[in-house]
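A student in our group prepared the protein record below, which I am reviewing. I have pasted the whole thing underneath without changing anything:
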Amino acid sequence: MSKQTPRKQTAAKQATAKQATGGKNPGTRPGTGSAGAGGGRTPAPAATPAPEADGSPAKELSRRRLLGTVGAAGAAGLVVGGAGGAAGVSAAQDDAPEALSTIGSTRVPFRAGRAGHQAGITTPLQANGHLVAFDLAPGSDRKAAAALLRRWSRTAEELMAGRTPDGDTGVALDAGPSSLTVTFGFGHSFFGRTGLTKRRPLELDPLPDFSADALDPQRSNGDLWIQIGADDALVAFHALRALQKDAAGRARLRWQMNGFNRTPGATARPMTTRNLMGQIDGTNNPKPSDRDFDDRIFVGRDADQAWMRGGSYAVVRRIRMLLDDWEKRSRHEQERVIGRRKDNGAPLTGGSETTPMRLDANGPDGLPVIPANAHARIAAPESNQGAAMLRRPFSYHDGFREDGAPDAGLLFICWQADPLRAFTQVQRKLDRGDALSPFLRHEASGLFAVPPAAEPGDYVGRPLLEG
């Protein structure tokens, strides 16, 4: 049995909050916000700060600045703490402690994802991420795999709710769930190891080779895949460690990759994230409000494998960016490589970030304003018979290589109903003449079948393993 008590603020933090307000607990004025998928963020309503008890203009200014910064993080769905935000705790006038009123309080349901989908697909981008793959231990069978998925699902549900499982390490005792998501998937090899080859979807056939690939097989593929995301680094690590401990004796770690994004509230207004090349990344993502979004991203009800209906396929690529070479190029050159302005993400044909590209526009010289080999042009659905995928990446930095160049780039993750008609189709075209390709190295790759969320009382993948 897992303990059901939520994580609480420590007594020391409560004492600090009371000292900061002259022995009185501050009140709260919550504000909320929401966001769509693919990095775009919707601003939260502005929170109106209450005046300080002593009427100090300096304190009032400080608090206004704090609220302005934190309020911009509304895309993560956080609740902004009013006067209690600076001390990290809010309390009622009777001195009774209340739950966290910051980024940490945001919870993503484990079992109630969008239309039954697992969390971590359409969930807004989090600040910290871990990708990890496991191979089943020698001698493991379908029964052992089911036991592991049952345990993993139980642990993930506890952690995403902000509860503390038995035998916990204590790493994140002081934090709320912080938008934690845990997403599970199956690799091609999983089905052979569990005697389920007849239930392996055709969409999980290995990806073709691409000319730009320099793949390390030890950091690619795997029987089982987990994606972890959270807005707090300790919460993300805590989930990683708990799931790794659960796997002991049942599965062995194959590879792990750590990533990050911009922290909610770091910008003056909610906006699409940037990658390590400084480019706004995710502008042309499909949106859940699109009429054909589900058809493009999630497996339909007519799928041959019933256990994957409502699921999705994740392509994972570790793409190193040759930042030294890229940063030697002028801003003008970089913008022509991408096909968009660097400052605001607008297409070179004008407008704002969300203005549609005019792929037929020519300049005074008669040449396309957006070059024929520009990355944005080649990757656009209009250039790929409507093929589209939901990109939800993390950046990474793993130190420096022997030549002093940064070992940094993108943990590219994209979601689609059919990889052959989405990722593979687009990547083949990019492989034939993308202006960005000389600045990238694809060093690891994986394709995983991600089933729908578990039903109440069930675990992820039960219809496959017990059906």
Summary: The two ends are 26 Å apart (CA to CA). Confidence is low (pLDDT under 50) at residues 1-93. Residues 359 and 370 are 7 Å apart (CA to CA).
